[in-house]
Specification:
The complex is a heterodimer of chains A (255) and B (421). In chain A, 38% of the residues lie in helices and 24% in strands. Chain A is α/β, with parallel strands linked by helices and 255 residues long. Chain B has two domains: 303 residues, Orthogonal Bundle (ABC transporter involved in vitamin B12 uptake, BtuC); 103 residues, no CATH class. Chain B has 17 helices and four strands. Classes of the chains: A alpha/beta (255), B mainly alpha (421).
Chain lengths: 255, 421
């Protein structure tokens, strides 16, 4: 069995008096593709924000490759090799596609806050940026301002920014939300490609994507993980069926 | 865009700029224009330094004159110390003292203010500006009270035989510093940190998730900006040979915002255009009218409302058409629009001038002159004519604007299709 890439221990998050995450325990192994599913309002996005440092944790611990990262700022967590994407596209709209990716590679290549060397002369940054652009298939759009890309292209850029730093733990928050069928297929292939050899934690609503991509699935309901297992076992799990898939069939009945 | 810069073309730009600066005093040789070009020189540095914050990093400061002023005071004090002790330091390095003073105070105050972004940062910068302005009236030893700190630029050791008494020598000193600072600030935008400044401006949240502390990016940009503001202040101290507490307050802090914004904060060249134009206007307009600051304010409002890209934005809008040669298709439309624009402008100016005459210069009687016109400021006929001119111009402009917009879009389209061929 592989070592843990990411461990959540008794994680709690309250907004005022309202508990949103109520004691989540999760163990994501190195090299696996792990999906988090759950009905709307279960706290999936909040969980992502807690892990990546966007929200402070109320209590509990987050371990990244065995190290405690609870309470660190997003940039410190990012520097330790965890990178995430956002549910709502979160790019640098007034910069070119090329520059969007280059911003994401600078820190990991050691350029930090340097203002004594020219960024155009940084060959490693250029090569890495171009290889990421090839990977996400946006090479032909490299000089276009990111804000004017099509929605699907912006989602691809979002993934590009996330993987560009070479982080080995990647978290994607609903990467295929709002995409057409063919766009989704393309995005799944892209995610499969860029997460090769890395640990992937993904939140996704599209069940075909989840069952297609994930090695293991965790089901989050009302701020608690009620099951973590392989896709086949999750499908067969009666508690999951009741809490999640059951609710979905009920919705269908009402509709 | 400028990823692939033609190396020769790149160097040629700077050589050309240097040659222009060298040649300018031969073209504009009068004492008044020499003084004006000196003022433009440090206005350009000041305004570009301000834009490192506003345009590049997306933070709005209301207290940038603090670093300009501290640079000026430190330079003046240093000049006096050097003159008293006969220290072997030549004048041309003195703006560096101003820069270091600006840097020091930017580090001090920036450490506090850059912890926040957005509105909170602006408020803190306003507070610090007021604080320092208040101190300048209390700490008379350092700021010199009402009279300020006087100094003399000619008391330092000679620099290649120059004592910097004549204005022309000061001009070349300012021009050299101006060129160096422009180049340094331009190159700053091409460094990893400079690019991350833009990233923080565009989307601070995402910048944190690619490994950068937005607070640190803002802090370093603020320090660099303070340094160049200090250099500008040092040059102004050398030029005027006096620094008073009026340079440090909210007035100059607001003025540098106006200059940069009117020039265009989204373009590197914008603040340069703004500084040159505003300095020229300040000097020439203030000869004609006491209400010149009002015109500057009106211009600022117009730019904010109708041309957020500033003058640089308006100019660069026409670049593709100029390159593809479709600009002349615009000329008829622009030619037609000139008439109502002139009418509105003239009407507006007459309203302002007449009001100004009635309110401020009422002791001189009601007869007044605007350029070659002479009329009675209280005459209903004059007022009707002015209002009619303004309203008719405005209505004509409204009628014409769709036509001009259409002509513009046509020309853009043609330029694009030509570019695609």
């Amino acid at each position: 069995m592989n070592a843990s890439a990411l461990q959540l221990m008794e994680l709690h998050k309250r907004f005022g008096e309202t508990p949103i995450i109520r004691g989540v325990n999760l163990d994501v192994r190195q090299g696996e593709r792990h999906a988090v599913i759950g009905p709307n309002g279960a706290g999936k996005s909040t969980l992502f924000h807690l892990i990546s440092g966007r929200f402070p944790v109320s209590s509990g611990q987050v371990l990244l490759k065995g190290e405690d990262i609870t309470g660190l700022t997003p940039y410190m967590i990012n520097r330790r090799g965890l990178s995430r994407s956002f549910q709502v596209t979160n790019i640098f709209p007034r910069m070119s596609v090329y520059e969007n990716i280059r911003c994401a590679v600078l820190w990991s290549l050691g350029y930090r806050y340097s203002f004594w060397r020219m960024v155009e002369k940084a060959r490693d940054a250029r090569e890495l940026t171009e290889s990421v652009l090839e990977q996400i298939n946006l090479m032909s759009r490299r000089d276009v301002m990111a804000g004017v890309l099509s929605y699907a292209e912006q989602r691809a850029l979002e993934i590009g920014i996330t993987i560009a730093s070479g982080a080995d733990v990647i978290m994607l928050d609903e990467p295929t939300a709002g995409m057409s069928l063919s766009e989704t297929e393309y995005a799944v292939a892209l995610i499969r490609r860029v997460s090769e050899g890395k640990t992937l934690l993904i939140v996704e609503h599209d069940m075909s994507v989840v069952f297609d991509l994930a090695d293991r699935i965790s089901v989050l309901v009302y701020g608690q993980v009620i099951a973590t297992d392989t896709p086949e076992n999750i499908r067969a799990n009666p508690a999951v069926q009741e809490a999640y898939l059951g609710a979905a069939t009920e919705e269908k009945d009402h509709a | 865009m400028s990823e692939i810069v033609n190396k020769n073309g790149y160097w040629m730009q700077w050589v050309l700029a240097a040659l222009t600066l060298i040649a300018l005093p031969y073209v504009f040789s009068s004492g008044a224009s020499l003084t004006m070009m000196c003022l433009m020189g440090f206005a350009i540095i000041f305004s570009l330094s301000y834009n490192m914050l506003l345009g590049q990093t997306g933070i709005l400061s209301f207290g940038h004159a603090v670093y300009y002023g501290m640079g000026g005071f430190m330079t003046a004090h240093a000049l006096n110390v050097i003159a008293a002790g006969k220290l072997p330091i030549p004048l041309p390095v003195m703006p560096l003292i101003g820069g270091l003073a600006g840097l020091f105070f930017a580090m001090l105050f920036g450490w506090v203010s850059t912890k926040r972004a957005g509105t909170a940062f602006s408020m803190i910068s306003l507070g610090i500006g007021e604080l320092v302005a208040a101190c300048s009236l209390i700490l008379r030893g350092f700021f010199g009270g009402e009279g300020g700190i006087s100094t003399s630029r000619t008391e330092t050791m000679k620099f290649f035989g120059m004592n910097f008494g004549p204005q022309i020598q000061v001009y070349y000193l300012i021009a050299a510093w101006c060129l160096v600072c422009i180049a340094a600030m331009y190159l700053f935008t091409r460094t990893p940190l400079g690019r991350m400044c833009n990233a923080v401006r565009d989307n601070p949240e995402r910048a944190e998730f690619v490994g950068y502390s937005t607070q640190m990016v803002r802090f370093i940009a603020f320090c660099a900006s303070g340094f160049f503001a200090g250099v500008a202040g040092g040059l102004s101290a050398i030029h005027y040979e006096i620094v008073t507490s009026s340079v440090i307050g909210a007035g100059p802090s607001g003025y540098v915002l106006l200059m940069s914004y009117i020039g265009g904060v989204s373009f590197f060249i914008g603040p340069i255009i703004g500084a040159v134009l505003m300095t020229a206007l300040q000097i020439s307009l203030s000869d004609y009218t006491g209400a010149w600051m009002l015109y500057v304010g009106l211009m600022f409002v117009m730019v904010v409302m109708f041309a957020p890209g500033g003058l640089a934005g308006l100019l660069l809008m026409h670049k593709p058409m100029l390159m593809r040669g479709t600009l002349r298709r615009l000329l008829p439309a622009y030619g037609l629009a000139v008439v109502p624009v002139l009418m509105v402008t003239a009407g507006g100016v007459l309203v302002v001038e007449t009001c100004y005459h009635l309110l401020v210069k009422s002791s001189e009687g009601t007869t007044m002159n605007v350029l070659w016109l002479q009329y009675d400021a209280k005459s209903p006929w004059a007022w009707s004519a002015i209002v009619a001119l303004f309203v008719a111009g405005g209505m004509a402009l409204r009628k014409l604007s769709p036509f001009v917009a259409e002509a513009f879009h046509d020309a853009v389209k043609q330029a694009q299709s030509k570019g695609a061929q």
